[in-house]
């Protein structure tokens, strides 16, 4: 029987929601791993709505659950309904929506607050010793909720211009967590906390390398589940 995995989304689109390629890659690798997946998102308003063609905010109002339903092909549930007891693992793709909608990292950095249902979901899986997978910017959720944990967002220096958000590693360290430097096609496993992370689009890399890195994260999560 395949592992039961919950996938938590933050909207639809890199600048104000979930990064679509990351969400798709996670779903493909979970499918290949024989997992049974259910998708969730919080039923809240987005912090902002970005015109992805122009890269600028608009005056629109959108709902995170409604927008996430685009990625889920309509088959999605309110995050408030997620019960950790019904799943073997949980995975959070990245995208600015994580830092805007699931928490306030985009505005407050290490002083951010985490959405109550996101926080309770993370705590429930952690307390049950069930694995948590995170990619791109979403490892900051673990860094905020679980002081002392180990995560990666890639490198802590902007190596060859490929890691423009390398300062995120320093903020993670300031939260009392250990940042582990990894390449885009790798993931890090915090065995003590069962937290698996990979940098994905925190690195400027070819799409197939990002896809492969997310694959290592998914594989490690399924091994731990």
From TrEMBL:
<protein>
    <submittedName>
        <fullName>GAL3A protein</fullName>
    </submittedName>
</protein>
<dbReference type="InterPro" id="IPR029062">
    <property type="entry name" value="Class_I_gatase-like"/>
</dbReference>
């Amino acid at each position: 029987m395949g592992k039961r995995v919950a996938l938590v989304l933050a909207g639809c689109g890199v600048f104000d929601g979930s990064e679509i390629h990351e969400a798709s890659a996670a779903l493909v690798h979970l499918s290949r791993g024989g997992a049974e997946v259910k998708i969730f998102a919080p039923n809240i308003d987005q912090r902002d709505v970005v015109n992805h063609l122009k890269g600028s905010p608009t005056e629109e109002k959108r709902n995170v659950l409604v927008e996430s339903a685009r990625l889920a092909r309509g088959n999605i549930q309110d995050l408030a309904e997620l019960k950790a007891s019904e799943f073997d693992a949980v995975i959070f793709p990245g995208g600015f929506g994580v830092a805007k909608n699931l928490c306030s990292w985009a505005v407050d950095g290490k002083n951010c607050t985490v959405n109550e249902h996101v926080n309770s979901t993370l705590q429930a899986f952690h307390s049950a010793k069930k694995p948590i997978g995170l990619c791109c910017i979403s490892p900051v959720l673990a860094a905020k909720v679980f002081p002392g944990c180990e995560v990666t967002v890639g490198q802590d220096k902007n190596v060859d211009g490929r890691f423009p958000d390398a300062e995120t590693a320093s903020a993670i360290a300031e939260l009392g967590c250990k940042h582990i430097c990894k390449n885009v096609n790798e993931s890090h496993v915090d065995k003590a906390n069962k937290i698996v992370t990979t940098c994905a689009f925190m690195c400027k890399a070819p799409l197939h390398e990002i896809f492969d890195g997310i694959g290592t994260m998914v594989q490690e999560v399924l091994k731990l589940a």
